């Protein structure tokens, strides 16, 4: 079928947030042909953000996070079935149950999985957890509810910080360990990460920054603690591994698509690229698995792990696949939020490559502030800590690439120039 012919069969691979929103966009754009969603989890699409927050505190049940959907019963769900290979020439998928599934258009939305602990045998210990799925969160919730004596969280990224904060809300002793100098240092840089670290320390989290776990100590199939590279042993009766995510691209091996552990490459429309850099106009990708050139960042290819991005890109990709004319390039402003106990961190834009940061609203001493990041004299990202109402104004500066440092001043404090600092990226 030529790329400009009207599709009759559309397949979505990945029954997560992006898969669902993409499928809804396909129907909303008027496509009435066969629409099939293939997902290797047993569940209809559910929301992941609550899994490391309100599900762990017990405020929300793990099975109560199903995403609302406008899809009707004219969609075929193939759940607990994975796509195993992709034959682009024949336009068909081979599924894990041995079936083949033909398509005219394909939406790739296979997301990411939790990066496993470095020693596979230790990852299997009964009290070692990671959180990606709702089943993961349900098991960890049950364990936390049983009041363990001490929780060890390995990895102080967003999810690690959220889990540590939940432990303190549950009044559980918790140690948060990371080789970086401060929590969130990879995402926000050490300068802002250090402020956030102080907030966690103030809430009672035992922060072990600049430390590395060599391996987990264990007995009778359970972790008893962690041995650090410097020889110190930390005891724990629950270990949570929060080392980031790996993109689910292995099933595309052999398809000729440009894909690796960092994502599947897309052009600036959202079509996937083959290994020679040519777009395949019958396939689009969206959500955590998609790596695409972002015009705000000089066309640098980025793969985001942001809820809002998964929604926006999936809506775009769904409409693209049914042949709608869309603005090029796809350029939604990245945004993210994280709830860490009673602290809410929100961001707009991407901090990567920042060469300067300034506190432009509030004051870290009050634990409420907005940090603006600059690169080569332009605003590239803003991060608000318990100051979300200020963020939209700074998001506009990021979206328009306004000069950095900003020329206006904070409205919540006396007139003064913001101090420009090194953001502290390693
Ligand atoms: C614990 C947690 C907390 C989070 N908190 C926040 C937050 O506070 N704020 C925020 O902005 N973002 C947050 N995120 C990120 C956000 O949830 C993701 O960006 C979003 O889920 C991405 O959606 P997706 O559909 O691209 O991927 P996913 O949600 O990963 O869905 C992909 C689906 O495809 C399936 N799949 C994979 N391979 C195959 C295959 N070969 N065949 C069939 N199916 C396959 C997967 O099993 C999965 O069900 C959080 C994520 C997690 C895990």
Attribute tags:
3 domains; 6-stranded antiparallel β-sheet; 6-stranded mixed β-sheet; 8 helices; globular; binds flavin-adenine dinucleotide; alpha/beta; 20% helix; 426 residues; FAD/NAD(P)-binding domain; Enolase-like, domain 1
Q: In total, how many beta strands?
A: 29
CATH structural architecture of the largest domain? 3-Layer(bba) Sandwich
Based on CA atoms alone, the radius of gyration comes out at 22 Å
Question: What is the CATH domain class of the largest domain?
Answer: Alpha Beta
| Physical arrangement of strands within the biggest beta sheet | 3-2-1-7-21-20
| Alpha plus pi helix count | 8
Give the overall silhouette.
globular
Assign the CATH superfamily of the largest domain: FAD/NAD(P)-binding domain
Largest sheet: 6 strands, mixed
Stated plainly, the CATH topology of the largest domain is called: FAD/NAD(P)-binding domain
Which runs of at least 5 residues are low in confidence (pLDDT < 50)?
none
| Helicity, as a percent range | 10-25%
